[in-house]
Write a structure and sequence with these properties.
Number of helices: 4
Largest sheet: 5 strands, antiparallel
Region (Disordered): 155-177
Strand content: 15-25%
Distance between the termini: 34 Å
Helix content: 25-40%
Number of strands: 5
Radius of gyration: 20 Å
Structural class: alpha+beta
Length: 177
């Protein structure tokens, strides 16, 4: 069985460049995060180490993209990109939370300069419309609660639940391997 070979995307970078990016983060950014967090949570044993990578399950990521495509198509919006936001989990029991990332599709909206994150509002009649995340957060679109029966509901497209294992050993020259 023959299949068409995919062209190399223009965002593919050489392995060495990826390793350089990873090492620069480890040398320039991770120590700042670690120092600040360890200063805030003095005496933590072992000391806090910054998250160095997040793993997205490949099949789960494909399902996430398929869901975005489905919901966006039904709402008549075309995703222009997938924005990756940096975040951190809440501290618990006197220990700091972990760095993480979450995704949200972005699209162009009339009257807004640049692409922006969006969610999907479903009206009582079942019609779907893309709305900015800012409109949801700022309360311009009522959150799903007792108002849902009057206003419909909002489907978030923010994706999280990725795996962020403990960081590799510090100063390990092979930690990108």
């Amino acid at each position: 069985m023959y299949h068409t070979m995919a062209e190399i995307p223009d965002n593919i970078i050489p392995v060495q460049e990826a390793d350089d990016l990873y090492k620069t983060y480890g040398d320039d950014r991770a120590p700042i995060i670690e120092k600040d967090v360890n200063d805030q949570y003095r005496g933590q044993d072992p000391p806090y180490e910054a998250t160095r990578f997040v793993t997205a399950d490949y099949e789960k990521l494909k399902e996430y993209i398929a869901f975005i495509d489905q919901e966006s198509k039904e709402a008549g919006v075309t995703p222009k990109g997938l924005r990756i936001y940096f975040g951190a989990t809440e501290p618990t029991k006197g220990k700091p939370g972990r760095e993480t990332v979450f995704f949200n599709p972005v699209a162009a909206f009339k009257g807004i300069d640049g692409d922006i994150s969006y969610a999907i509002h479903t009206g009582l009649d079942g019609s779907k419309q893309a709305i900015t995340v800012g409109d949801v957060i700022d309360g311009k679109i009522p959150k799903a609660s007792d108002t849902e029966l009057v206003n419909g509901g909002v489907q978030s497209l923010a994706g999280d639940d990725w795996e962020y294992p403990p960081p590799p050993r510090q100063n390990d020259p092979n930690d990108y391997h």
